[in-house]
Amino acid sequence: MNNHIWLVRPSQVGALMTQGRKKEEMWGETALGVIQQAVLFHKYGIEQQDIINPKIEKGICNEAQNIDLAAEVLGWLDVNSKADKVRITNDFIIGEPDVNTSILADIKTSWSANTFPWFKNPENKSYFFQLQCYMWLTGKEEAELVYVLSNHPDHIMASEIKKMTYYYIDRPFLFPDANSIEELWAYAEEKAEQIVMKEAIIDHIPKEKRVKRFVIKRDDIVIEEIKERILEARKMFDELIKTI
Question: Helix, strand, or coil here: 75?
């Protein structure tokens, strides 16, 4: 019998659903890591350190403007990017959808035009499970996975230019015309800015082309599989929490 009611976040479910490399292994390293981290938090309050890289930071910084752009392009009439997210729970999961009005949607910020899904759904299994969880929480029958392409925030752009400049400074052979360290810096900064700006600024692409929507239908069989997986994970949770 389970002693602890661990509520799983929708973003964790994709990892939790992964199997071990061998058929007889119920838990692979990825899934087990999710359970272990939950055990550490519940037992000792140890939280996993958030690793904020530029791609994640861009998503955080641009979320509101990307919701606004998606609403404009997709014709969402009752969506307000400034509205507070509402946390929803059931007996198994806890989550805060990006958009939950007459529309249920999760917004994904593409890092660049090269990572934007121009032609088809990337079919990210983790995102699929995440949206199934949101439909489970809200009772809705479909959800929208929406990719949005937007400019880099200014501070991220400046940081990327700086990193790229140092990259070129370490490769002076790329600038044979530089006759001094000052000229090398000037060449490196110019080259870095050219490259980063091409990736960071995408205003030349029409708005309606910078939003890509994929509709995901609710699958109660998958939701039942998620439920069963969480029940099994809780058994492992209870075993592990006794060992530390």
Answer: coil
Query: Coil, helix or strand for 149?
Result: strand
Q: Are 36 and 237 in contact (CB under 8 A)?
A: no
Q: Are 70 and 145 in contact (CB under 8 A)?
A: no
Nearest residue to 216 (alpha-carbon basis) of 129, 120, 115: 129
pLDDT in tens, 32-45: 999 999 999 999 99
Rounded to whole angstroms, the Cα distance separating 189 from 231 reads 54
Task: Please state, in angstroms and as integers, the Cα–Cα distance from residue 205 to each residue in 10, 118, 150, 202, 211, following that order.
Answer: 32, 12, 10, 6, 11
Claim: this prediction has a pTM higher than 0.90: yes
Q: Quote the CA–CA distance of 108 and 65 in Å, as a whole number.
A: 12
CATH number listed for the domain at residues 10-151+202-241: 3.90.320.10
> Tens digits of per-residue pLDDT, 180-222?
999 999 999 999 999 999 999 999 999 999 999 999 999 999 9
pLDDT value at residue 21: 72
How many Å separate Cα 147 from the centre of its chain?
11
Strand locations in 84-160 (E): 88-89, 94-95, 99-100, 104-110, 142-149
- Residue 45 φ/ψ region, left for φ over 0, alpha for ψ in the -120 to 50 degree band, beta for the rest: left
Contact assessment for residue 226 and residue 133, using Cβ atoms and an 8 Å cutoff: yes
Q: pLDDT tens-digit profile of 148-190?
A: 999 999 999 999 999 999 999 999 999 999 999 999 999 999 9
**Structural domain boundaries in the chain:** 10-151+202-241, 154-200
